[in-house]
Amino acid sequence: MSDIDYDLDSDNEAQEMAEAEPAHSNKNRPRKSQVGIEVKKLLKDLPFDEQYQMLQELTRGPKVTVLMGEEEKPHIQPKNLLCYYSSFFNGALTSGFCEETEMTIRIPDFSDTPFKMTVQWLYFGTINLDNLKRTKGDKLNLYIDFIRFADYIDLVGPFDSVFQGIRSLLSSRTALLPEHIRTTVQLPYGHPLRSLIAQACVKSYAWSLQLGGRKGGNKRRFRFQEELDTLEGFASDLVRAFSSSIRGNPRFIDPLSKEYLDPYKRFYDSYQLPQHPEKIPKKRAAPRRVSFAKSFDREVYRA
User: Considering the entire predicted model, what is its pTM?
Assistant: First the structure.
């Protein structure tokens, strides 16, 4: 027998809600705060002896078939492994639902790729897309789908390495696409991925404030203006990211590259931050203006 305990708290109200909707429902899935599951360490973070023993415990026992997507592609994984690192699987497979009897669980809202990445995360504690021959936009889409799926199943983190990979992709201007914003905004309010996507848009949004033409003209159109107009969540995220990047007036700082941005210059002159961002160089004093009366007197005197 395994030493791992998967018993859930007996809550009548939660039981009634769970019976009203399928176990895979995002609305009624059990959370850590509801079932009292403590935060656990990933296998890669355990010492060698504990890691080997834990791996033996998690991989023995019955297997579970997970059917992903509308096509219901099957994936067979140890029940103990899924239940230990995900409160969603723990609630679905240990609370008397039909999934526990059939040892099969269906997740139609996601493709099978996020689940493959989840299995890689459980065993290795990282996700490596370096050797994947796809565009940066496609790789960013894979990372976003994994984070969304991890949030859905309440997967154990932290996901620092994943966010580092996302940040690296966002350094390229062509990686971020409108569909990424529309997908990310579905995450809960305040999610770190939503904040990171908004930070990646600050530079482009600041550029859109730049005046065009020597004698003035129309502003440059923001790359994601349609998403800004139609997605309230993205608009609020961008406002927060943009406000936090302001240093002085009217200068801004790109949250990703840490560069000064001045949207009121005709030509964008970005340069690296000094060690102390708060100490912004003072502007040169404006040339002294001469009143019309004095200039008129001078012209009369010259004549």
Answer: 0.67
